[in-house]
Design a protein that fits this description.
CATH topology: Conserved hypothetical protein from pyrococcus furiosus pfu- 392566-001, ParB domain
Radius of gyration: 15 Å
Number of domains: 1
Structural class: alpha/beta
Number of strands: 7
CATH architecture: Alpha-Beta Complex
Strand order of the largest sheet: 3-7-5-6-4
Oligomer: single chain
Strand content: 15-25%
Shape: globular
CATH class: Alpha Beta
CATH superfamily: Conserved hypothetical protein from pyrococcus furiosus pfu- 392566-001, ParB domain
Largest sheet: 5 strands, mixed
Order of helices and strands: EEHEEHEEHE
């Protein structure tokens, strides 16, 4: 399954087998973001700098760990709440910059990309300033 990135003219891919295995074949989002506990704030996915995975060990597919992605997608499909993603609010500047993002993910690589693939518009987050 290929999913377009919010701010880039590119896509990323998750194996169709993983999608089906997690019960996502007939999934449609029931809200703007996945269910989350802990006083999360909803942040538009397009305002978050795409995170890079911390590859301390080999991954199963293009930087994704199958077990972690399966857990997240299964939680989406069954309505189980997941932890919000910690985000760092980036400082605002009037200076010309190549970045268009307001936040940087400190964790949550799989939750970020799974949210895009699932069709959510927002990411539940705990914003650090």
């Amino acid at each position: 399954m290929r999913s377009p990135m919010p701010n880039f003219p590119c896509e990323f891919e998750l194996p169709d087998e993983w999608w089906a295995e997690a019960g996502m074949a007939a999934f449609t989002p029931q809200g703007p973001a996945y269910l989350s506990a802990g006083g999360a704030q909803l942040v538009p996915l397009g305002e978050i700098e795409p995170p890079y995975g911390k590859h301390l060990k080999p991954r199963d597919w293009c930087g994704f760990d199958r077990a972690r992605m399966n857990h997240i997608l299964t939680s989406f499909a069954t309505g189980v709440a997941l932890k919000p993603v910690p985000l760092l609010a980036l400082p605002f500047s009037d200076l010309p910059s190549s970045t268009t993002y307001s936040y940087r993910a400190l964790d949550g690589y799989h939750r970020f990309y799974a949210s895009i693939a699932a069709g959510f518009e927002f990411l539940p987050a705990l914003v650090l300033r």
